[in-house]
Amino acid sequence: MYMVDLIQKKRDGGLLSDEEIHFMIEGYTHNKIPDYQMSAMLMAICFQGLNQHETVVLTNEMMHSGEIIDLSSIEGIKVDKHSTGGVGDKTSLVLGPMVASCHVPVAKMSGRGLGHTGGTLDKLESIPGLHVDISKEDFIKQVNACHLAIIGQSGELVPADKKMYALRDVTATVSCIPLIASSIMSKKLASGSDAILLDVKYGDGAFMKTKEYAKILAQTMIDIGKSLGKDTRALISNMNEPLGNAIGNSLEIKEVIDTLNGHGPKDLLELCLTAGSQMLIQAQMTDNVITARKMLQDTIDSKEALRCLQTMVKAQGGDDAYITHPELFPKTKEVISIRSQQTGYVKSLNALTLGLVSMKLGGGRMVKEDSIDHSVGLVLQKKIGDYVKKDDVLVKVYTNTGLTKELKNQIYDAYEIINEYVCQPPLIDEIMK
């Protein structure tokens, strides 16, 4: 079997056999197939696509290219949640404690942020002393003890995806649904949970720009999960404006704490209640959404979810005093208020632009080696549908380096304000299963 023959076959619209996909992934993972041939194959897949069976086989081969995490020693049905990312997306840090407080084990492996998307691990590391790199044995022990752990992905997990994604990033082959789906699902499946909930976002602040493409990606991932024996469901959610109000690492942790105290942003809480309800059903804790939502809301009202977060932070070496006293987080040198130049209603709010402003303040990375200033970012005072008077504060900018005229103008450009009344857009469009 020769790689050049497989490239030609896919280039001409042919279907790859199970054996051919195995040969390709095994060979590339072990450096038997050079980058230039895999680059050609990835481009052929971008043009010709993969059918459902090819996509499932590709995912399975990638999943088995490295370590498979065995979580069987954790009691109960393990449900993992994955978001396709967005601006201000701190869902896991609210949702995890809520679900765990309902006695569902949440054994979560998360990633770091690159570009405008904030990484869950970076946000957690705003808390002094907190470790996200812990052993598999301690990970399992912690989940059995308090039902919740959020750690970094194992270096041995899905090496094929690491190599292929690095190649896709520099060969313009990232935006291909079968490749996106196999990349996400191979990592989720290798992480060992029994069921998977996907939050697939669309809009200008998301990877998928339209609802239609988000639904295609979601269905592709659901089909993969089901074909490989996992209960897989998906939410289709709107990322045409940031989720919640805070953008930035410690600022988002403070918003998480506010939400678990019962006075966080309504959109963040609603997303967590909707996603958490599906997770409780997947974990067989209940069979209906109404009961599930009440169970989750009770964890907020009783402060049980907040205590769960505090327990997790302490277990992972973090200073849990920051959870009960968020005023301990370092403050920036300046907080600059950006005021509206007109009166009207917020019609649109460009999430991507605001995410990039936060990144340029030091809250994100352009390359993996960049360091992060955990204290900087933005807190929105007005969002889509809100009425604004001239001189009202639109955004508070938390900065240690001032605010250039260019960045200030970018914040203004992110807002479209009109005279007519504007309805708030739906947050969640559909639940797919």
**Major sheet: size, sense and barrel closure?**
4 strands, mixed
Shape: globular
* Unreliable sequence segments: none
Distance between the termini: 38 Å
| SSE sequence, one letter per element | HHHHEHEHHEHHEHEEHHHHHEEHEEEHEE
The helix tally amounts to 17
- Got a strand count? 13
Task: Write a brief caption for the model.
The chain is α/β, with parallel strands linked by helices. It is built from 17 helices and 13 strands.
Layout of SSEs?
Blueprint: H1 3-11, H2 18-29, H3 35-48, H4 52-63, E1 79-83, H5 91-100, E2 106-110, H6 120-124, H7 136-146, E3 148-152, H8 159-169, H9 177-190, E4 195-202, H10 211-227, E5 231-238, E6 246-247, H11 249-260, H12 266-282, H13 289-301, H14 304-315, H15 321-324, E7 334-339, E8 344-349, H16 351-363, E9 377-380, E10 387-388, E11 393-399, H17 405-414, E12 415-418, E13 428-432
Parallel strand pairs: 1-4, 2-3, 4-5
Antiparallel strand pairs: 5-13, 6-9, 7-11, 8-10, 8-12, 9-11
Helix pairs in contact: 1-3, 2-4, 4-9, 4-10, 5-11, 5-12, 5-14, 9-10, 12-13, 16-17
Describe the structure.
- By secondary structure, this protein is α/β, with parallel strands linked by helices.
- The protein has 17 helices and 13 strands.
- It has helices at about 5-10, 20-30, 35-50, 50-65, 90-100, 120-125, 135-145, 160-170, 175-190, 210-225, 250-260, 265-280, 290-300, 305-315, 320-325, 350-365, 405-415, and strands spanning about 80-85, 105-110, 150, 195-200, 230-240, 245, 335-340, 345-350, 375-380, 385-390, 395-400, 415-420, 430.
- The strands form 4 sheets. The chain has a 4-stranded mixed beta sheet with strand order 1-4-5-13, with helices on both faces. Strands 6-9-11-7 form a 4-stranded antiparallel beta sheet. The chain has a 3-stranded antiparallel beta sheet with strand order 10-8-12.
- Helix 9 packs across helix 10 (about 210-225), helix 12 (about 265-280) packs across helix 13 and helix 16 (about 350-365) runs antiparallel to helix 17.
- The relative contact order is 0.14.
